[in-house]
Amino acid sequence: MYTVKENVSKEAIEEFIQRRQLTLDVPYQFSLGLFENSRLQGILLYEDSLWESRMLQKKVMNVKFLAANSAGQLKRLFQAFYSVRQMDETDFISVRVSAEDIGAAHVIQQQPSSYFVGSLLKLAKPPSFYDKTPPFFELGTPEPGDTEAICELARDSFTKSRYFQDPHLSREAANKIFQEWTRNNLNGRAAVNIVAKHNGEVIGYLQGLSRGDESILDLMAVKPGFEGKRIAFHLLANFIEQPETQEHKTVTAETQLHNVRAIRLYERMGFIAEQSYYNYHIWPGKEAK
């Protein structure tokens, strides 16, 4: 007989992940476990995304990790989670599943209000040095007066992202997410902020995070009209060469699988693909078309 329990112990989660030879590389807030005769058969890790909820004026939940010993068990576990989200009037659920886990992807796709919003590729490399000098622009730490120009650059710079692929989110709402995401990073969330300027004009920026052994490329954008001028290369090289980055074992970046230009840049700079994911948005109160 199956039972679903909240607040699964960290030890039980780690034992399940090790037994399945999986990797847990994301933080989470809450856990939901499927048990059979006191043995953990499946785990769902998630968070209440307060920041996204505030930005979109909607109640948002993010499923960070989902795995079970069988597709049937995974379906049972997710349906228990979904039922609670319907009752607490969650507007939408963001789910990321490994592209290798066909069973999990199938379960999510079967939800009546599920939308596929893109594939994600994670790449990684150890820190290194490039010793390259930007040809016609300067790189440095943003000044307080650069904030609005940098946030404005975020507008329409991330149209390949999952927010822009969701039919229930307007372009205005998706842009607001990235502009405020950028602003939060400038206000202290990011460990590293770098701006590219040409004759005093902001033409690009990069923001990086620190999480355990990883230095993470969080956001990077180049101003329209300046693409193809190696600005992204020099921003990324400068980020990797930062003392804060060099202290980490790996530098990681994530991008959409259809963002061929970004993937080519990362590969030229020595990044290697590690994992791919499918992203879904599920709207419990709406019917998928």
TrEMBL record:
Entry coiled-coil feature ranges: none
Location of the N-acetyltransferase domain: 137-289
SUPFAM superfamilies from the UniProt entry: Acyl-CoA N-acyltransferases (Nat) (SSF55729)
Stretch forming the signal peptide: none
InterPro entries: Acyl_CoA_acyltransferase, GNAT_dom, MshD_Acetyltransferase
GO molecular function, one term: acyltransferase activity, transferring groups other than amino-acyl groups
Segments traversing the membrane: none
The protein's name: Spore coat polysaccharide biosynthesis protein/ GNAT family acetyltransferase SpsD
